[in-house]
Each structure stands twice: as structure tokens, then as C-alpha cells.
Design a protein that fits this description.
The complex is a heterodimer of chains A (409) and B (93). With 409 residues, chain A is mostly beta strands. Chain A has helices at residues 4-11, 15-19, 27-35, 43-48, 121-126, 170-177, 208-211, 264-267, and strands spanning 50-52, 60-64, 69-71, 89-90, 105-109, 117-120, 129-137, 160-169, 185-190, 203-207, 217-222, 225-226, 236-238, 251-257, 271-273, 291-293, 300-305, 311-312, 315-324, 330-336, 344-345, 347-348, 358-366, 369-379, 402-408. The radius of gyration of chain B is 15 Å and the shape is globular. Classes of the chains: A mainly beta (409), B mainly alpha (93). Chains A and B meet through helix 4 and strand 2 of A and helix 1 and helix 3 of B.
Amino acid sequence: MITRRGLLEAAGSGAALAASPIRLVGLSEAWAAIADLPKELPSGTRAEARLDALPGKKPLIKLSYRAPNYETPLAYFRSTITPNDAFFVRYHLSNIPEVDAASWRLSVGGEGANSKFELSLDELKRMPAVEIVAVNQCSGNRRGLFQPHVAGVEWGYGAMGCARWKGARLRDVLQRLGLKREAIEIVFDGADGPADDQTPDFVKSIPVAKALEETTLIAYEMNGQPLPHWNGFPARLVVPGWTGTYWMKHLISVRAVIRPFDGFWMKSAYRIPTGRFPLVARFASQETAINIPITEMVVNSLITSPVDGANVAVGKVVVCGLAWDGGYGIHAVEISTDGGNTWAPAQLGEDLGRFAFRPWTYEVLAKRGKNTVTARATNVVGQSQTASLIVNPAGYHHNVMQTITLSAV
Amino acid sequence: MRLIIAALILLLVQVRVNAEEHPVLLKKAPGVEKVERNCGVCHSLDYIEMNSPFLNSANWDAEVTKMIRIFGAPIDDADARTIEDYLKANYGS
């Protein structure tokens, strides 16, 4: 049970942030939030990260200005739905046009299709609309926690968010298009592009089977509002269960192809070592003996309150968090307060669907001095968080069990 | 005409986006101007400090090579060596 007293005690030093994320705009709180950056991040990252607001956004943790890469501060993960103006921003390329909704057209076709056509935003919105709550998480979320560190955008915990997405089923668009029997992948391009025309444009593909799943959407709304510019206005792909790399923003082109798409961002980037991760979802047409494309998210959890290192009062402390996976659904979150020797189940909260964040709470009895709290999520197909990092060159799929330390007086 | 208008719109958008970018101050050391002039064309310079100090000499060489060979950065060999030396000396491990 969450009691008001328990919550107040649990919040500890993070109380100001927990109560009102809006207060992050104040300078002192801004620096407090930056002080909350995980200590495992590279020291250079900790030095250059800033709280900074993109137009239309709350101050987020700026890791790079151009391309814009901003992560969501921990305080916003204390609700199951991440607010649009606090939702993380991730781009590879820095030429990001502001798309005009009235003149926007989605081009649909390809050599694997029986037809081709264009859709306006109004036409897309006239198709049957579907809503789904789903986590969008960057493949490299928590890359900054890798030991040894690997090059890239050095994300902490916040390159993710959970929103209610509304849009048309990609399947309905593809059925109208008509796929040839030999269609093997669907290729997506967005309006954004590179600063230099020699740089490979960000283009991605997914298997036809994934494209035809009824949960794969071309979304134009996020939490009841048009998509924010920085999250893909006016329409983006939503691929529940799979990592954010496939969720193409500012979508302008959908093409069916009859050969595996071999662009840089498929053939060379977003790959994980073959056979290293216990995953179910495959992308067979892109696999090699050495590496395979990243697909579904690994099961994971995040402790959202108290913050690591918080001072708490001796006695009952309510620990809060989130758990999520690749869309099978969370089976259990377990907590250990003795370094992983014994585990007890946390109480799972509201269930917004198998692709959503699943909140959980657990009441710890804090003893005088240092207390550790470790969380471990397991999904319904038996996947569990790992105790030690599964090393991979690009720094993907970090789901090492998180431990926080509380000081009780 | 449409191309010109598109280019102008793009330029305006770029200016607007760049206006959000606070200056990133790299360590003052030999080669810093070449780093700013070359690397800063395509990405903000905070990428450098963000990826420090854990990249060793071979890692920094590989990053510069990747920017040229894969991302098409138009950097000549002499400048590439200067940039690598600067990164290793100031942001390397």
C-alpha cells in the first residue's frame, strides 16, 4: 500500500523534484537535477550535460545540441505516461525541417507493391484510428552506464518514454497498397536528413510480418495532442515492443521491397552480436553469422523514487518504479535488500497494456545506516534482467539490475 | 523557384534550430581551430567531451576515420591527423 506518509518519507531529498517536475526550470533545481546524473556516466558526459529546453519542450538533459539528443529527467518517470513536453528527443542527423501539415504527403509504394499512392494527413486521419499505450525506448538507453564505456550518445536512464499513440494501422495502408508475394521488408524514410549530402540518410526497414501486426501504427497523435515537432510531427511510425530506431519520425515514405534493404543504418548500425541476447523477435532477412539487427526491447525496470543516495528516515520507505519489456507483459518485479540473496515481490500497479510502462511499489524497512535496494523485472515469457552486462560494441540493450543506496537516520 | 523557396525555408529553420545551440568551448590547444571548423560543420562539439576521456588513441583515430569514410566528412589527410592528435591529447585516455 502507498500511504501519504510513506510517500513523503520515500521521496526524501528528491521530494522537490517528485512533487513538481515543473520546478526544474529554476536554476538551483536545474543543477540539482544534473547532480542526479548517474555517477557511472563518463566524466566528460557529466561535465558537458546541461538542463536545456528545446522550443516547446521542458528543460531536459541535453547531451548534444546538434543533432539534438535530450533525455528525460528521472522526475517525469514518476507517472506511467510521459508528458509530451518532457519526452526524450533523439536524432542522428541535424537537418530537421519543420514539416507543414497541410502540404505534408506520405508517399507509399515500392517495387514490392502492386500500386503506389500518396496520403495527406487528412486522408490518414480518415482511416480507422487505433490507440495504443507503448514505450518508445532508444536502443542505446543507458549506454553511458556501460563498463567499459563505448562511443556514442552517452545516455543515462532517460532515453525512453511511454505515451498513448493514436494513428492508422500500417497494415491498413499496406492492404490498400497491395503487397506482392515476394515483398520481404517495408522501408521507411523521414523528412529529416544529414547536414552534408555525403552522409547516409537515416532510412530503416522492418520485416513485412512486423509491419502487418495490428499494433504497428502510423501515429499522428501522442497523449491526445498532435505529435510534438521533436517527436516526429506530423506523423511517425510506432512499432510497439521494438526499440526506437524503427519508430521513424516525420515519416514521408513507405516502400515495400523485395530484397533486404542495405542502407548504412540497417546493414552496419543498430546491430547486436548473433546469439548473445535471449530475445524472441527475429529479423531474419537482415541476419548474418556475426551480427543481427536489434529488434524487441529487453525486459527492464527503473527505480523512480527515492533517488539513488537519498537520505531517508529509519522505518518504512516506499520504493516506486516502472517495468517494461518487448510487449509480452510484465510478470513480476522483485526486490532484494540484501544484495540479491533473497527476493520479495513488489506490488504491480495500473496495467495500461502489454507495451506500456508497468508501475510498481515496494515497502522497504530502512535500518540505520546504508540500505541497498535492487529491482529485477521478469516478463511473462520468462525473460529476466541480467545481473552482469551483456557487452556489445555499440552499447545496446542495457538491462542490468539497478541498485540504489539509501542512507537512513 | 520552388527549390529556392525550399532552400530559404531550410536556411530559416537551420538558423532557428542553431539559435538554441549554446557555444561549446573546447580546450584551447594546438589544432582546436581545425576541430571546430571541420567537426562543427555537421555536429555540435559537445559530442567530443561527452565521449571523453575514455576513448584511447586507437578509438579516436577510428572515430575520425568513421566520420570521413562513412559519414562523408570532407576532411583532407593533413587536417585529419591534426584533429586526431588534438582529440588524443585533450580528450583521450
